[in-house]
Design goal:
It contains 17 helices and eleven strands. It has 501 residues and is α/β, with parallel strands linked by helices. The strands form two sheets. It has a nine-stranded mixed β-sheet, sandwiched between helices. Helix 1 (20-32) packs parallel to helix 2 and helix 13 (320-333) runs parallel beside helix 14 (358-376). It is elongated. The termini are far apart.
Length: 501
């Protein structure tokens, strides 16, 4: 810890952490051998140096090396002299002095990390001072909860990327990442580049769930949005677990799936998950109307799935800022690979914002979810209700225009999917004999036609991909077991007898 004696009070005063000797040694190594720059170029920038003169010299060295030019005491002297700032950086004598402080190229990386570490600690001190000052009322616009969220945001930024606020990424680097992604898809079974959903045909159509994507899963009440979302959560959690235990069977997963359940409690959601996996009716579970065999199966399945990396937050009417804060915290503590929000219209915008209308409010939420997906580099699935206008049409299949407050949702989403079950609407159209005024032949013909249509639609659902920024649109047929509110892959070979695999 650096301290100085105060001449006024004779008290010891702490100075911000720095290591000037390490900075000098590193700069000397760079001037003596430009190859040493490769050991620090990925994490060190001029702003990390405590001495602004050292930062200026480092910046000049980096600029020349990255331009393919020689950076030594002679070339730097000429450059500074030409710019009229040679004396500001200590003159020729100081550049020569740096050479005498030189360390070997092997040690350059270690000295660079020392410089970076002292910068990080200075940033933490600044952040701490800001937190203290705000708590004392320096920023009266922020209440206590907002101050926590602001501090967590600053800490997350510092931990995630050293406090960087973004910038250009070289095309070569982006291209390398694209090649690595394609290679992963090539080596994986099913050629899925992203996180698996656990649904074969959906993975095939979308290539899995991709980082930075905001995916809207929409439907009218009763279509099974939550059931499909929990199926995807299960599939993703199992894929995360399989990756973790691919080499070591006892390894713990380094990521998790976060479910924000704004409508159902964590217990209700857990009951639904158990019902789906155990194939025991959720309604019977709630009423206790199950036999010993079903209960034993229920307990067995609960033990099997208890270790899956799923985190549930059932805070009602959660704000966008609170959701963002909890996701960042989860990433730091347990890691996060997927966020599911059930559902969009139950959220509130960030605290302190006062949108003029509901459309603007939803727009702020979808923009916040998209920003979260990009910031954490994970897919975010947000469930959404459809407007009632669907019910007024003869053809009930949903369209993009049916999204409530649709403009912003459709614009911000990378993919929009609709859940549609024809069986749900056909049930409401069962012929009634009274409508045929005693004409039994017409009634029986209508009933037979309805039964045939019901048989065809039984246990079937359609997942309509209406928008996909990175791939094709289209309809994916799925199996839907209504008793267990469970989705699965549909075996099209056996659709005639209603069998699904």
């Amino acid at each position: 810890m650096n301290t100085v004696e105060s001449p006024l009070f004779g008290l010891s005063q702490r100075l911000p952490p720095s290591n000037i000797q390490a900075e000098q040694a590193l700069l000397g190594a760079l001037l003596a051998n430009n190859k040493a720059y490769e050991r620090v170029s990925e994490f060190l920038i001029a702003d990390h140096f405590a001495d602004p003169v050292h930062g200026r010299i480092f910046q000049a060295i980096a600029r020349r090396i990255e331009a393919g030019q020689l950076a030594d005491a002679v070339t730097l002297k000429a450059e500074f002299e030409h710019a009229g700032v040679l004396e500001e950086v200590g003159g020729t004598a100081y550049l020569t002095q740096l050479l005498s402080a030189m360390v070997g190229i092997i040690n350059a990386g270690d000295y660079g990390r020392v410089v970076y570490d002292t910068w990080l600690r200075r940033q933490l001190i600044d952040l701490g001072e800001t937190v203290v000052n705000n708590a004392y009322g320096a920023n009266s616009d922020l209440d206590g909860v907002q101050q926590i969220e602001t501090a967590e945001q600053a800490l997350f930024d510092l931990a995630a990327d050293g406090g960087s606020t973004g910038g250009f990424i070289a095309f070569e680097r982006a291209l390398t990442e694209a090649i690595h992604s394609a290679e992963r898809a090539f080596k994986r079974s099913g050629h899925v580049t992203g996180l698996s959903t656990g649904l074969r045909d959906l993975d095939s159509k979308m290539g899995g769930l991709h980082p930075s994507d905001l995916i809207i899963l929409a439907g009218r009440p009763g279509m099974g949005k939550t059931a499909l979302a929990t199926k995807i959560a299960f599939g993703a959690a199992k894929a995360i677990m399989a990756d973790a235990r691919g080499i070591d069977p006892n390894a713990l997963p380094k990521q998790s799936v976060a479910i924000f359940s704004l409508e159902m409690s964590a217990e209700q959601l857990a009951t639904r998950l158990l019902s789906e996996e155990a194939r025991v009716s959720g309604d019977r579970i709630r009423r206790g109307d199950i036999g010993q065999k079903d209960f034993d199966k229920f307990v067995q399945v609960s033990r099997e799935i208890a270790s899956l990396p799923i985190q549930i937050d059932d805070t009602p009417a959660i704000t966008m800022s609170a959701l963002r804060t909890r996701c960042r915290r989860l990433k730091r503590t347990k890691g996060v690979a997927l966020v599911i929000v059930d559902y969009l219209q139950l959220m509130r915008p960030a605290a302190g914002t006062r949108p003029e209308n509901r459309v603007l409010e939803i727009s702020m939420i979808t923009q916040g979810l998209k920003a979260l997906a990009k910031e954490l580099a994970i897919p975010v699935i947000a469930l959404s209700q459809l407007s009632r206008q669907v019910e007024n049409r003869e053809d009930k299949r949903p369209q993009l225009a049916d999204l409530r407050e649709s403009g912003s949702i459709e614009q911000d989403a990378d993919a929009v999917m609709f859940v549609y079950r024809d069986e749900y609407y056909l049930e409401q159209k069962m012929p009634k004999e009274i409508a045929y005024e005693g004409n039994s032949d017409k009634f029986h013909a209508a009933m037979e036609d309805w039964q045939q249509r019901m048989a065809k639609a039984h246990n079937r659902a359609d997942l309509i991909i209406a928008k996909q920024r990175h791939g094709p649109t289209g309809t994916i047929p799925l199996l839907f077991e209504g008793e267990f509110t469970r989705f699965g892959d549909l075996d099209l070979i056996h659709t005639e007898d209603g069998y699904g695999g």
